Amino acid sequence: MGHPPLEFSDCYEDSPDFRERLKCYELELERTSKFLKDVIKDGNSVINAIKGYSVAVQKFSQTLSVFQFDFIGDSLTDDEMNIAESFQEFAGLLQEVEDDRMMLVGYQQHLLDPHTIRGGNKRKPNWNWLPGVNSVSGLVLL
């Protein structure tokens, strides 16, 4: 829904119509402010849930990576060696996924920082902490 424009000359007259239009703008600003606060709050909740999930996956990955069969006799069977090797390989893949997920979470946290949203930080953002990003251009390097 669009709002009628506020004319500078109307503020001198201070008419009831001008005050009504001004009130519409104030209500819209309050609604937008509440929406942005909810986005930040919900986004932070999602990030915290992702962090908890990531910790659980990393623990699972660590458990898989240290798994060893106790063998009876001289050596492990081929199946036992394949299973142990598969667990370690799967653990490595899980760890890579979680490392990338945490990189994205760091980026999301930066985007949901209220100072970033409000424009409180007028400096150019420093992306050096993000692997693969050229700090000069902000382009992703592959």
TrEMBL record:
Q: Name one GO cellular component term.
A: cytoplasm
Gene3D superfamilies in alphabetical order: Arfaptin homology (AH) domain/BAR domain
For this protein, what is any one GO molecular function term?
Answer: GTPase activator activity
Superkingdom, natural source = Eukaryota
Q: Which residues form the BAR domain?
A: 6-110
**SUPFAM superfamilies documented for this protein:** BAR/IMD domain-like
Transmembrane residue ranges: none
Q: What is this protein called?
A: BAR domain-containing protein
Species source reads Hucho hucho (huchen)
